[in-house]
From TrEMBL:
<keyword id="KW-0001">2Fe-2S</keyword>
<dbReference type="InterPro" id="IPR017941">
    <property type="entry name" value="Rieske_2Fe-2S"/>
</dbReference>
<dbReference type="GO" id="GO:0051537">
    <property type="term" value="F:2 iron, 2 sulfur cluster binding"/>
</dbReference>
<dbReference type="InterPro" id="IPR036922">
    <property type="entry name" value="Rieske_2Fe-2S_sf"/>
</dbReference>
<feature type="domain" description="Rieske">
    <location>
        <begin position="66"/>
        <end position="161"/>
    </location>
</feature>
<keyword id="KW-0496">Mitochondrion</keyword>
<comment type="similarity">
    <text>Belongs to the FAD-dependent oxidoreductase family.</text>
</comment>
<dbReference type="GO" id="GO:0046872">
    <property type="term" value="F:metal ion binding"/>
</dbReference>
<dbReference type="GO" id="GO:0016651">
    <property type="term" value="F:oxidoreductase activity, acting on NAD(P)H"/>
</dbReference>
<dbReference type="Pfam" id="PF07992">
    <property type="entry name" value="Pyr_redox_2"/>
</dbReference>
<keyword id="KW-0408">Iron</keyword>
<dbReference type="Pfam" id="PF14759">
    <property type="entry name" value="Reductase_C"/>
</dbReference>
<protein>
    <recommendedName>
        <fullName>Apoptosis-inducing factor 3</fullName>
    </recommendedName>
</protein>
<keyword id="KW-0285">Flavoprotein</keyword>
<dbReference type="GO" id="GO:0005739">
    <property type="term" value="C:mitochondrion"/>
</dbReference>
<keyword id="KW-0274">FAD</keyword>
<keyword id="KW-0560">Oxidoreductase</keyword>
Length: 603
């Protein structure tokens, strides 16, 4: 028999080299000044000061050690959750090297051990966020924070982890950021970077600038009354209060000198003078501009559209109000959009009745295809949602000033105490019409791969833009997904700093209804066929969307992490052929998770 020597593995928290370089101290104990050029002028700035420490564990009582396994217990390409008693870590072996990071995705807490490991990063099985296994840094989105990284040491005989209890419990790490060095010296009407819009794109842009050492003034402005919040939850978790869905607490913005002007609407932009003019007449001069205004919900055009109890879900207050008014009442939802369907699902158990009106004959037909749409429709019907398809609203009737009935063009009259409108949206770019910024025929801002508009120093990101999607041969597309807004914001920030970084990501989205999620990756616009594997009736399936002979997108329900697996293949630039996903061996893939048959095909 063979005697295999046992090698010891130790893991302890360390600061990644990229982060450590930001914390190196000068002889006087201050952070060494770096230089950033503004309008050609060199400016000195300091990163946030940190106490000098020879040990990454500032408090010895915060350190825990525990034996976890032998080195031979893990093969290349394997991941394992290891328990240290007060928390868990994710131990990874790839290309003969061990790495250890937090085990939960900082976005919504998905177990990363069930995700996808590929070429130095792990992808979340739920929503597709990607993390570098060597540094823990977030490389694709959604989410704002990175993973804590734990150092791996290999010795003989035992495998154990040494880690910070705090890091094990929080399972997240915010990157080191700069601060504004002379905020008090700025004129209130002048900023280096102005960000119009405080959604995911705007916030990620601001954070990325600070992470990259930018120390000039950053101002975000928003029409909303709240600091940036998790907007997808407005239709998925409608009774959430603003503070519960805030992306960052108020203290965060104060700490890193990111100013947010709430309830402030930009009315015009003068790109020659570099001035933004607000609706109230206030003017702000900028050096770099990011436009991330998102979209504006479409409204109904019928009689009665302005009456009380008719809502577009745009703010936490809208969502909260709908839940309150809908409880034990009759609800009519107009539009089987993602928002409309999610609202219907959320209210189904709370309202007396939920009726959904849609012009198409099947919900989600254009996005998920007819067969998947019918399966979803059946799930809704089994949960007491009544559909009225291939018709529109002709009138909203009131009694005593409040909504009473919704009249359809088919002649049907629906009892209604509350009406929610989800019939799509248009880009919020009307204020740019005379600016000289290139806007297409649909109102979208046109940008290049670096999120730059046709005007130097002006960038745009999020739902209001069209950009070249590498996945579809650089076709200009609009991708109004939460994940994509994050990536847009990061790319814009890097190119404000002249990094020359081009966007390269696979669109990823999810929708949640009745405790089930559909995950989706790719860009299926214009698909001509859908290959289904699994059982639609049981709501356990994978749908591959093809155009000609190529898979352009994938959706799944109850088949994690298939969507993240396919996203990794597409992100690597490989082509998945239609014949591959039609192959009966796909079922073997479902059981084993083996990706080799997929990645070996195509170009």
């Amino acid at each position: 028999f063979w005697v295999v020597p046992v090698v010891e593995v130790k893991i302890e928290v360390v600061i990644p080299e990229k982060e450590r370089s930001k914390e190196e101290m000068s002889p006087n104990g201050k952070a060494s000044p770096l230089i950033y050029k503004v309008n050609g002028t060199a400016r000195h700035y300091h990163l946030e000061e940190h106490p000098i420490a020879s040990n990454p564990y500032h408090n010895p009582k915060d350190v825990v050690e525990a034996s976890v396994c032998h080195v031979k217990d893990l093969e290349n390409g394997q991941m394992r959750e290891v328990d240290l008693g007060c928390g868990k870590a994710l131990l990874i072996k790839e290309s003969g090297e061990f790495h250890a990071v937090g085990h939960k995705c900082p976005h919504y807490g998905a177990p990363l051990v069930k995700g996808v490991l590929s070429k130095g990063r792990v992808r979340c099985p739920w929503h597709g966020a990607c993390f570098n296994i060597g540094t823990g840094d977030i490389e694709d989105f959604p989410g704002l924070d990175s993973l804590p990284r734990f150092q791996v040491k290999i010795e003989k005989e035992k495998v154990y982890i040494r880690a910070s209890k705090q890091a094990l419990q929080t399972q997240r790490r915010t990157k080191v950021m700069a601060k504004c060095i002379s905020l008090s010296n700025y004129n209130l009407s002048s900023t280096n970077v102005l960000i119009i819009g405080a959604g995911a794109a705007g916030l990620v842009c601001a954070e990325t600038l600070r992470q990259e050492g930018f120390s000039d003034r950053i101002v975000m402005c928003t029409l909303d009354r709240h600091l940036p919040y998790d907007r997808p939850k407005l239709s998925k978790s409608m009774d959430s209060h603003p503070e519960q869905i805030a992306l960052r607490p108020k203290e965060f913005f104060c700490t890193y000198d990111i100013e947010v002007l709430t309830e402030m609407q930009v009315a015009a932009v003068d790109v020659k003078s570099k001035i933004a003019v607000f609706k109230d007449g206030f003017k702000m001069e900028y050096n770099k501009l990011l436009i991330a205004t998102g979209n504006t919900p479409k409204t109904l055009s019928c009689k009665g559209k302005e009456m009380e109890n008719v809502f577009n879900i745009r703010t936490p207050e809208d969502a909260n109000r709908v839940v309150k008014l809908a409880t034990s009442k009759n609800v009519v939802i107009v539009g089987a959009s993602f928002l409309g369907m999610e609202v219907a699902a959320y209210l189904a158990e709370r309202a007396h009745s939920v009726s959904l009106v849609e012009l198409e004959h099947v919900p989600f037909k254009k996005f998920f295809g007819e067969r998947v749409g019918r399966a979803v429709m059946k799930m809704f019907e089994s949960n007491r949602v009544k559909f009225y398809m291939q018709t529109e609203v002709s009138e909203l009737r009131e009694q005593d000033g409040k909504l009473k009935e919704v009249v359809l063009k088919s002649g049907k009259v629906l009892r209604a105490d509350v009406c929610v409108v989800g019939v799509g949206a248009v880009p919020a770019t009307g204020f740019l019409k005379q600016s000289g910024i290139n806007i297409d025929s649909k109102g979208f801002i046109v940008v290049n791969k670096m999120m730059q508009t046709n005007i130097p120093g002006v960038f745009a990101a999020g739902d209001a833009v069209t950009f070249p999607l590498a996945l579809r041969n650089n076709k200009k597309v609009n991708v109004p997904h939460w994940q994509m807004a994050h990536m847009h914001g990061r790319i814009a920030a890097l190119n404000m700093l002249a990094h020359g970084t081009e966007i390269s990501t696979v669109p990823y989205l999810w929708t949640a209804m009745f405790g089930k999620s559909i995950r989706y990756a790719g860009h299926g616009e214009g698909f001509d066929d859908v290959v289904i594997q699994g059982d639609l009736d049981e709501l356990k399936f994978v749908a591959f969307y093809t155009k000609s002979d190529e898979v352009v997108a994938v959706a799944s329900m109850n088949y994690d992490p298939i969507v993240s697996k396919v996203a990794e293949v597409l992100a690597a630039g490989r082509t998945i052929r239609k014949r591959d996903v039609e192959n009966p061996l796909i079922f073997l893939f479902f059981r084993t998770g083996d990706m080799s048959w997929l990645t070996g095909k195509g170009s």
